[in-house]
Amino acid sequence: MAVDQPTAAGTATTGDQVARQVVLPFKKSVEIAFKSIRARFFRSMITTLSLVLAVSFLSFVNVSTDMANGLLTTGDPVVRENLTAAGYDIGPRDASVGSSPKQRWIVILSLLVCVVGIVNAQLMAVTERFREIGTMKCLGALDRFILRLFVLEAGMQGVAGASIGAAAGGLFAVLNAWIAFGSVALRVLPAGAVTASILSATGVGIALSLLGVLYPAAVAARMQPVEAMRVEQ
Amino acid sequence: MTQIRNIVRVSKVTKTFKLGKVLVEALKGIDLEIAAGNYISIMGPSGSGKSTLFNMIGGLDKPSAGKVFIDEVDIAQLDAYELAWLRCRKIGYIFQTFNIIPVMTALENVTLPMTFAGMNSDEAITKGIGLLQLVGLGDRFEHKPSELSGGQQQRVAIARALANDPAIILADEPTGNLDLTTGEEIISLLKQMSQDRGVTVISATHDFKMLNVSDQVVWIRDGLIDKIEDREELSISVGRIGSR
Questions:
Q1: Which of A139, A187, B14, B227 is deepest in the core (most CB within 10 A)?
Q2: pTM of the prediction?
Q3: ipTM of this model?
Q4: Where residue A5 falls among pLDDT bands split at 50, 70, 90?
Q5: Regarding beta strands B65-70 and B200-205, do their DSSP bridges make them parallel or antiparallel, or are they unpaired?
Q6: Angle A67-A71-A74 (CA atoms, 0-180°, nearest 5)?
Q7: What are phi and psi of A170, to 5 degrees?
Q8: Burial class of residue B94, CB neighbours in 10 A (0-12, 13-18, 19+)
Q9: B82/A6 CB distance under 8 A
Q10: Residue B217's pLDDT band (boundaries 50, 70, 90)?
Q11: Spatial distance between the Cα atoms of A53 and A110, rounded to a whole number of angstroms
Q12: Do A226 and B96 touch (CB under 8 A)?
């Protein structure tokens, strides 16, 4: 009787119909990750919500600055006065405004809080799914399959949450400028700068979501398959 | 006469756990050979080392000393990749708590191990439906685990365990969470699979219903093998249990 010894290289020996391999095609991983989010929609939504809020705040601050810069290009002294009244720090000769250090601090803090929130939520998700992960490992899943599934899920949540947040924050900033400064704000709207701000906020959001899942995903991937056997409750 | 092939060979296995500062010896030197195609029950009280031995045979745990061979391969020599391969292809697991992946349908659960084994999706679906029909769930493959009863979930688990035509099925208290009748159905299904497909079924159990179908019963007590009974001797002891 021939001894079936798996080869690490995943090559097929002669006469073998199926190659000696353990695989999870990328398309299948995406499908599983997507179904997993859909099946736990409410929980995913809460995880994503903190990201939506933080990213919309970032987007709001940046787009507001863009709007103020747009308004400054009019050169209208009344607009300039209104801007100063609205709290923008403009010197008499300044042609542009930047965000204040205080603002930047608040944004950074909100993003930090958001990452911590994501790590917390994802760790809970991993704990909740210990049995599921263990079962997958018993069925032959490698560590990296599990890692990939969690990163993909976080990526999807990141893309959804960050784009919703960035768009909402940007829209709110434009509306805010419109209400505060009148229709002139829309006439001089710096479309390029606003789009760039929204896109960069989306990018930051996706990066934060991925950053937040790294540790929980590593915990999940390192889990031993024997956990699936455990009977609790 | 064909030579009896040992699918599992356990040789002088000991296992020590560290519980806080105390060393606990769960297995104190076990020698066991399991012939291919048999239906084996591992019996013993809780804390006897039954689960530890069982996990060792399943490649889920490594011995502190001694060797475990599955299909003549020493599992201690395997790396993570090869162990995953072994779990995927050689062993089918059945759990007390069914462990059907909750976000997937019955069919997706059954086809997942085939996906891991590199089978293409159409082939996997055809085979998956075939297996679900075999366990009597031919019409429920689109159901989620939450829409299935315990017995039906365990049937899905059996179909999933058979997905890659494994040599061994490891069943950990497969009837532990099922009522009497459903448990009997699952036991006879396992027995039938073992006979029809030549799969070695190894189950750790408390359930005396299991004795009727076992080719061999391994009794574990205090980390040692108490006795190994073959089918013929069993009918007597079953009678005794029955009359007790």
A1: A139
A2: 0.86
A3: 0.88
A4: very low
A5: unpaired
A6: 155
A7: -65, -45
A8: buried
A9: yes
A10: very high
A11: 9
A12: no
Tabulate helix, strand, coil % of chain A (nearest 5): 75, 0, 25
Residue B239 in this model has a pLDDT that exceeds 70: no
**Burial status of residue B237 (CB atoms within 10 A of its CB: 0-12, 13-18, 19 or more):** middle
How distant, in Å, are the alpha carbons of A12, A14, A118, B59, B200 from that of A5? 11, 13, 42, 15, 19
* A12, pLDDT greater than 60: no
Name which of A22, A134, A229 is nearest B116 (Cβ-Cβ).
A22
Residues whose CB falls within 8 Å of the CB of residue A175, separated by 6 or more in sequence, listed in order: none
Q: Which of A4, A24, A38 sits opposite B115 (nearest CB)?
A: A24
Contact A36 B73 (CB under 8 A): no
Residue B42 to residue B213: CA distance in whole angstroms:
13
Nearest C-alpha in B relative to A34 = B103
pLDDT for res B238? 56
CB contact under 8 A, B87 and A224: no
List of residues 6+ apart from B56 with CB closer than 8 A: B10, B13, B15, B27, B62, B63, B68
Tokens of A158: 């990141």
Task: Answer for the pair A136, A145: CB distance below 8 angstroms, yes or no.
Answer: yes
Contacts of B93 in chain A (CB under 8 A): 135, 138-139, 228
DSSP letter at A13 equals P
Binary contact (B116, A139; C-beta < 8 A): yes
Q: How far is B149 from chain A (nearest CA, A)?
A: 18
B59 neighbors B89 (Cβ within 8 angstroms): no
Residues B174, B210: Cα–Cα separation, whole Å: 10
Decide if B116 and A137 are in contact by the 8 Å CB cutoff.
Answer: no
CB-based contact A18:B119 (threshold 8 Å) = yes
- Residue A10 confidence class, pLDDT cut points 50, 70, 90: very low
Mean pLDDT along residues A95-115? 88
Q: Touching check for A147 and chain B: CB below 8 Å? A: no
The strand order across the sheet containing B6-19 reads B22-35, B6-19, B65-70, B73-74
Is it the case that residue A2 has pLDDT exceeding 50?
A: no
- Give the amino acid at A49: L
CB atoms within 10 A of CB B204: 28
